[in-house]
Design brief:
single chain; alpha/beta; Dna Ligase, domain 1; D-amino Acid Aminotransferase, Chain A, domain 1; Glucose Oxidase, domain 1; 34 helices; 45% helix; elongated; binds adenosine-5'-diphosphate; binds magnesium ion
Length: 889
């Protein structure tokens, strides 16, 4: 028969800390503490296997479980010298749930189990304290009825409140033994009334009721929701811990508390915790009384007059400090601890690795490493890459006053304040005049990019976490709140309302893109702090990392940010972003609307010098590092004039009849632009566009190489290739233009030509394509769209419900879909490398900044990842962690 029960306490334990899959986190660590010789009240853990069996067999326990429980309980009775249900000398227990991962959605703990009208008298007698016994009894009835019997806890709170009111009592401590006796009777009546049967007096019935409730809670709605949100599989099951009670409510030499072995918000190496005298269980966190500080130092810092534990119980405090030191040394990590002091005797009730802020995580990792408790590699594994986001953007000053207008989606982190503008052009104009502007739109589209760039932050009324505004804002590192549903903007852009409150252009607005909050007026912010610990962990991460980390950047400013954050090149420069700026859009429109090659060429001539200077600046910032430049990609219609006034403007500037342009604009409209005339298809049909771009790139590269004496490494990237013939044609043209430029400059330099792999056909024919390409960059945004046959811009209406219903484990635009999109990537890697073993492989979609996807990239052997500048440190850490875990297998 399998072992269903693991004992702990009394100086030994059956389990260990690595058995958390079987014993749950709480059970495994209770066992570990008991083995370490720490004072743990004895008890036993019923394994998660029992939970799994229970559900497999239609809520039936495996044979032999009840006998095993009885044996384990007898062992506890022996150790403490009390008997469960004994009227003279009663043993009381707690029944505690405990899954592998901590799950706040699970059943609450039941304390003081084993009390009834007889045993309570025995308890009172033993303790010589009626008040304590009846306080425990009323706690038990309340918890058990709430958690196991499903009687609403308000029922009990109301009874106490009324009872106190009638007697002018204020605190629980005003209640004496007779008061609690009276409350117990009122409670029992209330339960009998609510359930139509009396509160169970049989202690075994109580015990099994609680065990059933813990296993039952694994399938309650709260747990299911929590599991879904945190990716916890249903198949794990929960364990149940039954443990002898110790009492923090036995008078003034008793107490209960929680502690962290280091400060969880700063990481500082000093104890941090709270306790309450004469209290039990959750009283400390429940907020009924104000808890006291553990240390005298913390008390002084808080300016509190209530004495610290260090002051009221110096001996126990000393003992507790020794336990902290022992646990930290043992687990080599900061611990979050629960303890109880029963009449001066210390008992340990829980320990686990404590949750912490990013700042604390960095400090603790560095300190533990420098204290010689962990290695550099372990330190690197201790910090959650995604949490670094907290440190990479300005945040609201927590003390600053604020006026909340509404809350939308936290689309792009960071806080910012600016004057409201309702159009991208207005944003650009006001920003050019030196104003900080907040772009407020119903939604955004590619033609708003220049305004988004000019703005300090963006708010939209519509759209989800993967809407245009959200994706672009994250890429640019602009704080953004999306889908602020209460926002209504007047059609003519004259003003707006948020939840009925009017706002107008020029008003100050502040957003917190990390919470989705929108405030009226300016709220002060604090700048990101890249402390010494941060730099240290990055340095260690770089030692563990195999893949290079590059950034997606177009502007010199973004490139500089990326370089400052440690980017080792640019993995994606989207040339079209350079086309949207107000000063150029006219020439771009002229080019698109031209009906002849000659017309296009004359417009392109105007664009050549501006593109060249863009690239010159970019190469200067990135000197010595590779820069991948993608030739024009989006459908032309994205650049088209939208209003007739704009058409007239272009017509006037070029001296062409506006009607010609109107007709041309209609011609260019497509039913499905994302699958239309875009990417290299444009390069094939309008060769002069790519020619101009390649000329600009090569001229700039030659100029910068000559002026700086440093190497300039352009990598020209062709987007949306579906067939090798497309690439073959374009490659020949690119080489021809490069040669022309070299002749004209009397200079040559190294450059490479590669392609994006972003269509399933390209992935499947990667062997053919590799014959013509020197590198592949996986454009996993488009590859996801085309693999799923799903447009990212239209996914918002149903994708979230797919994820909620479990049809998809996660949003495939956020984390790469390994089974589908990932399989295509693997095929392309394998086929590409077979033809060309030194083919350089990278990724440049949004996934390049997502830790889970980065892990995938490591495993398929990509050479580099590329992400937005502000995610570079996250990617460096994630790549390091991926390399370490890949090494471990
Ligand atoms: P949670 O997982 O919600 O923290 P716990 O099972 O840890 O639930 O218990 C809730 C509270 O009850 C904690 O404060 C814990 O220390 C206390 N507690 C649990 N078991 C006992 C016990 N045997 N004796 C005294 N206090 C206990
Ligand atoms: Mg706990
Ligand atoms: Mg693409």
């Amino acid at each position: 028969m399998a072992q269903y029960i693991y004992n702990f306490g009394g100086g030994s334990a059956d389990g260990t800390t690595d058995m958390r899959n079987l014993l749950g986190g709480k059970g495994a660590n209770l066992a570990e503490m008991a083995s370490l010789g720490l004072p743990v009240p004895p008890g036993f853990t019923i394994t998660t296997d029992v939970c799994i069996e229970y559900y497999k067999n239609g809520r039936q326990y495996p044979d032999g479980l009840s006998a095993a429980v009885a044996d384990a309980l007898a062992r506890v009775e022996d150790i403490v010298g009390k008997k469960f249900g004994d009227a003279k000398n009663p043993l009381l227990v707690s029944v505690r749930s405990g899954a592998r991962a901590s799950m706040p959605g699970m059943m609450d703990t039941v304390l003081n189990l084993g009390l009834n009208d007889e045993t309570v008298e025995g308890l009172a007698e033993l303790a010589g304290d009626d008040r304590f016994a009846f306080d425990s009894y009323r706690r038990f009835i309340q918890m058990y009825s709430d958690v196991v019997l499903g009687v609403d806890h308000h029922t009990f709170e109301d009874i106490i409140d009324t009872y106190k009111d009638e007697r002018d009592y204020f605190l629980d401590t005003d209640m004496g033994a007779d008061d609690w006796r009276a409350v117990v009777d009122l409670y029992k009546d209330a339960v009998a009334e609510a359930l139509g049967r009396p509160f169970p007096t049989d202690v075994n019935e109580q015990l099994w009721g609680a065990i059933d409730a813990v296993f039952g809670s694994w399938m309650n709605d709260r747990s299911k929701t929590y599991r879904r949100l945190n990716n916890i599989p249903e198949s794990w099951g929960t364990a149940v811990n039954v443990q002898a009670m110790v009492f923090g409510n036995m008078g003034d030499t008793s107490a209960t508390g929680v502690a962290f072995t280091r400060d969880p918000s700063t990481g500082e190496n000093s104890y941090y915790g709270e306790f309450l005298v004469n209290a039990q269980g959750e009283d400390v966190v429940a907020g009924i009384r104000t808890p006291q500080a553990l240390t005298t130092k913390a008390r002084a810092e808080m300016g509190s007059n209530d004495p610290s534990l260090e002051e009221v119980m110096p001996e126990t405090f000393k003992e507790l400090s020794d336990v902290f030191a022992k646990l930290e040394a043992h687990y080599a990590d900061m611990q979050d601890i629960e303890f109880t002091i029963e009449q001066g005797k210390l008992w340990m009730l829980q320990t686990r690795s404590g949750k912490r802020t990013a700042k604390a995580a960095l400090k603790i990792a560095v300190d533990l490493c420098q204290e010689g408790k962990i290695t550099e590699e372990q330190a690197v594994m201790r910090v959650g890459p995604a949490s670094l986001d907290q440190l990479l953007h300005p945040s609201l000053d927590p003390h600053a006053p604020r006026d909340l207008l509404t809350k939308g989606l936290p689309a792009s982190p960071g806080a910012a304040s600016g004057e409201i503008v309702f159009s991208a052009d207005e944003a650009e104009k006001r920003a050019a005049d030196g104003h900080k502007v907040m772009l407020v739109r119903t939604e955004t589209s590619p033609e708003d990019i220049h305004g988004m760039h000019a703005a300090v932050g963006i708010v939209t009324a519509r759209g989800g976490m993967t809407s245009h505004a959200a994706v672009v804002a994250r890429g640019m590192g602009r704080p953004c709140v999306c889908g602020a549903g209460e926002l209504r903007i007047e059609r003519d852009g004259s003003g707006a309302t948020i939840g009925g409150r009017a706002i107008k252009a020029g008003d100050m607005l502040t957003i917190d893109g990390s919470t989705g909050e929108v405030f009226f007026g300016e709220v002060l912010t604090v700048q990101p702090e890249l402390s010494g610990d941060f730099a240290k962990v990055m340095e260690w991460a770089d030692k563990c990392r195999r893949m290079k980390v590059r950034a997606n950047a177009e502007t010199p400013l973004d490139a500089q940010t990326a370089r400052d954050f440690g980017a080792e090149g640019i993995g994606l420069c989207r040339t079209e972003h350079m086309f949207f700026e107000a000063s150029r859009i006219l020439a771009v429109r002229q080019m698109i609307l031209a009906e002849t090659e000659r017309g296009r060429r004359s417009a392109l001539e105007k664009l050549l010098p501006v593109q060249r200077s863009d690239f010159t600046e970019l190469f200067e910032v990135m000197a010595g590092l590779p820069v991948t430049i993608r030739l024009l990609d989006p459908p032309l219609h994205e650049f088209l004039p939208h209003t007739d006034a704009e058409i007239v403007e272009v017509a006037e500037a070029t001296g062409v009849d506006p009607d010609v342009f109107r007709r041309r604009a209609r011609e260019l409209e497509e039913a499905n632009p994302m699958l239309g005339h875009r990417g290299c298809r444009l390069g094939i049909t309008y060769p002069e566009i790519y020619e101009m771009q390649v000329r600009a790139i090569m001229q700039a590269a030659c100029d910068v190489a000559k002026a700086s004496g440093e190497s300039v490494v352009p990598e020209i990237m062709v987007p949306l290739v579906a067939t090798v013939s497309e690439l073959r044609i374009l490659k020949a043209r690119i080489e021809a233009v490069a040669k022309e430029v070299f002749t004209e400059k009397g200079q040559t330099l190294e450059y490479t030509i590669g392609t994006m792999i972003e269509l399933p056909r390209a992935a499947l024919t990667a062997d053919q394509i590799a014959g013509e390409a020197e590198f592949f960059s996986f454009g996993t945004n488009d590859l996801t769209q085309t693999t799923f046959g799903l447009s990212r811009d239209d996914a918002g209406s149903f994708l979230p419900s797919y994820v909620r219903a479990g049809l998809l484990e996660q949003d495939p635009f956020v984390s790469i879909d390994r089974d589908g999109v990932g399989a295509l990537v693997e095929i392309a890697v394998e086929k590409g490398r077979r033809v060309k073993p030194d083919l350089k492989l990278g990724i440049c979609g949004e996934h390049g900044g997502d830790p889970l996807s980065i892990d995938f990239c490591e495993r398929v052997g990509l050479d580099y990842i590329s992400c937005s500048p502000y995610r570079v440190p996250i990617a460096r850490l994630a790549a390091a962690q991926a390399a370490v875990s890949a090494k471990k297998g």
